[in-house]
């Protein structure tokens, strides 16, 4: 190779396109965690799916979608003519193509959830092809570790304290309790007793967050309940009140945020960046929580996070549902200056039991952000076969 001319810099040769060969989804069955919903899911139900994007270069990227995996499989068949043969090194362009060309089928829902998993997998491929972690590709490394909050279902008061204590003993120093009987038993004294038990078990030096889960079917309360409950939560130093109102009650959320003594969080039910505009511009949230596994993937998530920052709203991801969702949130946490928490569901095999190297807390209750290429995690094919009953090339 000839020497570089004086005064000129030699640059690396551009990476040639890596073409998408196929995409498949693996619904996860058998260990689906409880949701605390009024119509409870069962372990054998599918509410999460792993997505694998295979390329002609032999690089496979992995993502995750928070919906029934059988819907994701159907969505991939619809999307296949749009992604087949595309350059896997261009996640934002490719997934925007998928969004733009499926608008008549509805923005949000199955196709958007499927695109979310594809997008995460494409970022994983881009990182693996360039030898860089996704966080660095997103713009920088603001931190190398972040605190996870252990996300737990609410229980009756005596049991609630035991559950918090179990995960405190495992090293967690931040906790979110949600759903379960809270608000559903129509007993304000029970609601407070649950929170009091959780606070006592967590300790007054640790973080405690509360999620009403008002996106549940037939949520029985409105604005006045949320206002009274926010006042109660203040007495227990609760860090935020999440999903305090039905998910379409925009005006009520705006009012609640103005009067609440504790920060108001929400946004997990919204998909695509456009849906977040009225909620951010009108001041509905102190903390916005897009879910990377259903909002449209990392490409959408970071645009929402940027937009939130312009409105002075804190961004914290909601990709808690599988180890791939957590990995995506960790990479996002490295790339934004003020992210100090990520959600981490307590005791789910889909998080704890599918990686070659499971996530581990350090002595201060933090998670390291993987610095290996891509998402920085590796699926253990032997472990995950347990949750995928049908043989699949995903595991070859």
From TrEMBL:
<dbReference type="InterPro" id="IPR013341">
    <property type="entry name" value="Mandelate_racemase_N_dom"/>
</dbReference>
<dbReference type="InterPro" id="IPR029017">
    <property type="entry name" value="Enolase-like_N"/>
</dbReference>
<keyword id="KW-0456">Lyase</keyword>
<dbReference type="GO" id="GO:0009063">
    <property type="term" value="P:amino acid catabolic process"/>
</dbReference>
<dbReference type="InterPro" id="IPR029065">
    <property type="entry name" value="Enolase_C-like"/>
</dbReference>
<dbReference type="Pfam" id="PF13378">
    <property type="entry name" value="MR_MLE_C"/>
</dbReference>
<dbReference type="Pfam" id="PF02746">
    <property type="entry name" value="MR_MLE_N"/>
</dbReference>
<dbReference type="InterPro" id="IPR013342">
    <property type="entry name" value="Mandelate_racemase_C"/>
</dbReference>
<dbReference type="InterPro" id="IPR036849">
    <property type="entry name" value="Enolase-like_C_sf"/>
</dbReference>
<dbReference type="GO" id="GO:0016829">
    <property type="term" value="F:lyase activity"/>
</dbReference>
<dbReference type="GO" id="GO:0000287">
    <property type="term" value="F:magnesium ion binding"/>
</dbReference>
<protein>
    <submittedName>
        <fullName>Mandelate racemase/muconate lactonizing enzyme family protein</fullName>
    </submittedName>
</protein>
<dbReference type="InterPro" id="IPR018110">
    <property type="entry name" value="Mandel_Rmase/mucon_lact_enz_CS"/>
</dbReference>
<dbReference type="InterPro" id="IPR034593">
    <property type="entry name" value="DgoD-like"/>
</dbReference>
<feature type="domain" description="Mandelate racemase/muconate lactonizing enzyme C-terminal">
    <location>
        <begin position="157"/>
        <end position="263"/>
    </location>
</feature>
């Amino acid at each position: 190779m000839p020497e570089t001319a004086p005064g000129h810099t030699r640059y690396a040769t551009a990476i040639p396109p890596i073409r998408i060969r196929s995409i498949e989804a693996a619904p996860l069955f058998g260990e689906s965690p409880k949701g605390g919903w009024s119509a409870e899911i069962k372990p054998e139900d599918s509410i999460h799916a792993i997505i694998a994007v295979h390329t002609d270069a032999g690089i496979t990227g992995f993502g995750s979608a928070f919906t029934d995996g059988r819907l994701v499989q159907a969505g991939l068949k619809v999307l296949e003519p749009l992604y087949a043969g595309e350059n896997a090194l261009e996640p934002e362009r490719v997934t925007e193509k998928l969004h733009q060309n499926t608008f008549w089928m509805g923005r949000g829902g199955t196709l958007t959830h499927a695109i979310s998993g594809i997008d995460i997998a494409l970022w994983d491929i881009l990182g693996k092809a360039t030898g860089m972690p996704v966080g660095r590709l997103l713009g920088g490394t603001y931190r190398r570790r972040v605190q996870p909050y252990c996300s737990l279902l609410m229980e009756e008061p005596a049991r609630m304290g035991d559950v918090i204590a179990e995960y405190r003993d495992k090293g967690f120093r931040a906790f979110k309790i949600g759903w379960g009987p809270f608000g559903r038993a129509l007993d304000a004294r029970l609601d407070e007793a649950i929170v009091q038990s959780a606070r006592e078990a967590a300790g007054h030096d640790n973080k405690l967050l509360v999620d009403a889960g008002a996106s549940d079917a037939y949520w029985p309360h409105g604005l006045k309940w949320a206002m009274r409950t926010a006042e109660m939560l203040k007495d227990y130093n609760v860090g935020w009140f999440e999903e305090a109102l039905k998910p379409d009650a925009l005006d009520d959320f705006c009012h609640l945020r103005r009067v609440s003594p504790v920060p108001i969080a929400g946004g997990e039910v919204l998909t695509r960046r456009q849906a977040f505009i009225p909620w951010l511009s009108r001041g509905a949230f102190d903390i916005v929580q897009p879910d990377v596994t259903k909002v449209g993937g990392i490409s959408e998530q970071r645009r929402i996070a940027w937009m939130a920052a312009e409105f002075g709203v804190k961004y914290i991801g909601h990709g808690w549902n599988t180890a791939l969702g957590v990995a995506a949130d960790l990479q996002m946490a490295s790339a934004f200056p003020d992210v100090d928490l990520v959600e981490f569901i307590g005791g789910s095999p889909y998080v704890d039991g599918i990686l070659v190297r499971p996530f581990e807390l350090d002595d201060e209750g933090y998670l390291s952000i993987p610095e290996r290429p891509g998402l920085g995690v590796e699926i253990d094919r032997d472990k995950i076969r347990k949750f995928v009953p049908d043989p699949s090339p995903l595991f070859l």
